[in-house]
Structure formats: C-alpha cells, structure tokens
Specification:
15 strands; eight-stranded mixed β-sheet; binds zinc ion; seven-stranded mixed β-sheet; Metallo-beta-lactamase, Chain A
Length: 325
C-alpha cells in the first residue's frame, strides 16, 4: 500500500477505531502471524530442502525458495533430479546453478549432463576444483562455458541467498563446505571432511539447518571388507567423519542453541547403516543433555533438535525450513 493511500485510510477511519484500524505495513505480517500462529500458513518465500541421494553412490541436493534455487553437487543423474523436482512442485527453471563441494566422482559425475539439459544453470566451483574436475574426469571441455569461479570466504549472492564457500579437510583437488543464508534460514553443508577445520566450525555455528556427513562407524570400518590403504584413507584427517565424531561435534554446536535440524549425509554403504548413524549421533546429543527428535516430519516451534539420516539412493521428502526471520 502506498504511503499516501495508507495516510488517507488512516484519516478516513480516524474516528472509527477498531474495525478499520490498519496496522502499518511493516507491522501487518507479524501481527497476523502472532494472531494465527506460524503454523496456520506457509510463508512462500521460506527456504526448502530436498536430497536426491547421499553417499558414495551419488550426492545431490536442492535448496531454495519458490523463486530461486541451487543444487548442491551433481552426483545423481539429470532424469531423476528432474523427475523429483517436478514431483515436489519445484520449477527446474528457478534453479540457478550447481554448487560444487569438490571434484570426486560421487559429487560431479552428472554435472555436464545436468548443465547440458539446463542451459540456464551455472556451475559454481573454485578454480582448483574445476581444474580437478577437468583433469580427473573424462568430461566435455565445453563444461567450461558454464563455470562461474567462486572463492572461499568471498560471499556471493544468488537471488535472495548469500552463499559463502569455506575450507573443509578432504583429498579432493579443492574442498568446500557452503554456508547458505536465505529468507528465514541459515543452511550449512559440511560433507567430505576428515576433521572439522576452524573455518568449518565458524560457519557451522551459524547454522539453523546443518547437513553434515556421518560417513562410517569406526568398528564397522575396522572389521569391514575394505583394503587396509582405503581404511586408512577414510579414517585420516583428509578422509571422512565417523558417527561418533559427528555426534560429539554436533552436540557441541547444538549446545549454543541455534541449531534446529540436522541432516546426516554421506553414509557409507559398507561401513555404516542409517540405524547405526542415527543411534550414535542421537546418543551423543542426548548424553550432552540435548533433547532430540528422530521424527523426519517437518515441524515448527519445536524445541528439540530434529535429526534424520538422508536416504542413500532415493529422494527425501521436501523439507520446509522454518527458521526465525
Ligand atoms: Zn570426496
Ligand atoms: Zn563423497
């Protein structure tokens, strides 16, 4: 409503307070929300999250608002991603591009196919990660046409979202986590990291929504089928996080009170199960006195921290992120 019209309405109804009292525009939303309760309707600009697959068989997820979205990694094929976006009412044309965490094949395998079918998208990757992608994979050089270089610690905006890449500890050519600040939510991705770096910790502590890897159970890895050199690589500080490390770390972050939901990602097929990862992480949280909800359904105004393990080879439900504005 224009200022002039608002003023005219105020003058018009000045002698009839109550029924036609118009709150100022800035008050209107919050007053209505308080009256109806936040659950009464969805705010359309709020962020949503969807995982198409998570783990060594392929990683790809979606984050965005109805008007603007991003994919995180491209390890799931274009057909499945397109189908699942449509099934969840997300217009693929709103997706601006792919954020690349690093150049391992479970994260990049379908990058060119996705871009080729969706020429409006960009590939957001650090120059080192992009060069690694070209060097390590037999992918068309034409993928360079889609590349937008990004740099760690330098925020960039995509629609209403501000994205900051940060250092993780892994053995890709270059390795990033992402802090994505959007309408009503701060979402942080920390996957493929053998230890929590100082910069990862700095960004994770901003998160209301955290996707963090819980790759393996230490006993299952030790006694499992992998050759010794692979076991050593996974357990190293440039490999992956085990369930206990993830649980203890998430508990230390959750104690600060910002965190609302945790999505455990990149669960190993051979050295972990969803039940083992959930059991260990939730146990660490509860041991630290933090109330946990294992329910995967979206909720609002919930005081407990929701924890869920993302499915390895199928799509999750669409999750609405209801952070504080
Ligand atoms: Zn990796
Ligand atoms: Zn990976």
């Amino acid at each position: 409503m224009s200022r002039r019209r608002q003023k005219r309405n105020q003058l018009l109804w000045a002698d009839q307070p109550g029924l036609f009292d118009l709150p100022s525009e800035s008050d209107a939303g919050s007053a209505n929300l308080q009256a109806l309760g936040e659950t009464a309707f969805e705010l359309p600009e709020r962020m949503r999250f969807l995982s198409f697959g998570s783990g060594s068989s392929g990683n790809c997820s979606y984050i965005g608002t109805p008007e603007c979205g991003l994919l995180i990694d491209a390890g799931v094929n274009n057909k499945y991603v397109t189908e699942q976006l449509a099934a969840n009412g997300i217009d693929i044309h709103t997706i601006q591009g792919i954020l690349l965490t690093h150049d391992h094949s479970d994260h990049v395998r379908f990058a060119y196919a996705i871009l080729r079918y969706n020429r409006h998208m960009r590939l957001y990757a650090t120059p080192k990660a992009f060069n690694g992608l070209l060097r390590r994979h037999s992918m068309s050089r034409r993928i360079a046409d889609y590349h937008t270089p990004i740099y760690k610690e330098f925020p960039f905006t995509v629609g209403p979202m501000t994205v900051t890449a940060f250092e993780t500890s892994h053995d890709g050519s270059d390795n990033c986590g992402f802090c994505i600040e959007g309408p009503g939510a701060v979402f942080v991705v920390a996957t493929d990291t053998g230890t929590i770096t100082a910069r990862t910790d700095y960004y994770v502590r901003k998160a209301q929504y955290l996707m963090i890897e819980s790759d393996y159970d230490a006993d299952m890895l030790r006694t499992g089928p992998y050759p010794q050199h692979l076991k050593a690589r996974i357990a190293s500080t440039i490999g992956h996080l085990d369930n206990s490390d993830t649980g203890r770390y998430v508990a230390s972050v959750a104690a600060a009170g910002l965190l609302r939901r945790v999505f455990l990602c990149h669960l190993s097929d051979k050295n972990n199960t969803p039940q083992t990862a959930m059991g260990t992480v939730c146990h660490e949280l509860e041991s630290a006195g933090i109330a946990v909800c294992r329910d995967a359904e979206p909720t609002v105004n919930e005081t407990r921290i929701h924890v869920m393990a993302l499915p390895r080879e199928k799509c999750s439900q669409l999750i609405l992120l209801h952070g504080e504005p």
